[in-house]
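for the writeup, i need someone to sanity check this before i put it in the appendix. the sequnce is what the collaborator sent (i think, or maybe the updated version? ugh). structure was predicted straight from it, no edits. if anything looks off just tell me and ill rerun, i have time this weekend
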Amino acid sequence: MAAEPKALIAGRIKASSRIAVTSHLRPDGDSLCTALALAGMGRLLGKDVAIINHDPTPLPFSGFPELAGVRIGQIKAADFDTVVLLECADVSRSGQEGLDGAFKINIDHHYSNTPYAEINWIDPEAPAVGEMVFDLSASLGVRPTPEIAECLYCAIASDTGSFQFSNTTSRALAAATELARLGASPNGVAEKLYYNNRPEKIQLLGRVLSTLTTNGKGTIAVISMFKRDTEALHLKEVDTEDMTTLARSIKGVEMVMFFKEMGPETFRVSLRSKGSANAARVAEHFGGGGHIHASGFTVYGPYDRLVREIPATVEALLDEDPQGSSGPAR
């Protein structure tokens, strides 16, 4: 019987001397904090581990001292024995080029992942890759230090919306409990994730929420953020997850669409859903992807047209097939 991916990954890491860990474009708390934990485990095993991402570290994680060592740029495959890709549906999702000759490990909890690596560990039932890597620690023979445990706890807390999203499963809670026993501070993680806002961020929140509209049924909420507002408030980067969370808290709303202006007539649309509303299926319709309850895509055109047409299409998709055909909600 073939060895399971987790055992194969542990064996490869133990056999490697130099390891690169990378995340998806626009990295999030799960991928960033999991990368930190994986690097820490590797170093406990005497490995030389580098975290190299294509995109800069976003708020609030850019303020974490432990993430200061993350390198931004391209991985030189010849410099490493193994490259670990976290939450990347394919290599292009990492933004890394020239990895064709590298030995790649693919760890992901998105069902839409297309196995592309020499070792693929894809578990759509996992609440976060942080939970998967915590599971991997036993196969590596590594007992997480309090610092590693806190990174993994932060990964899970971040991806579950502080244990509010639908991926807050028994697996998530069991892992979080054990990580707290190992020294992770739930309060310390909450302080770093949720209580570091600048006054300008709260002003921006007010501007974004002032754009709130809903469809006639009250099932879709739309909010928007424009470059003129971020520039006026001198915000070059901003964490927006709490904005969608607030909009999603409206009674009866099944899906939130957050239009973020990226450039002239270019908008990144973040989707957050609840219940049976399948955000992943909607995102895939527009050429994007992600989780069933957290996905996104990019659209081009005049804002006034997009903000009318895109929500109307989304409403039709939800009416046609609320759960979609992309897999079971979790």
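Residues 230 and 236 are 7 Å apart (CA to CA). The chain has two domains: 5-194, 200-320.
thx in advance!!
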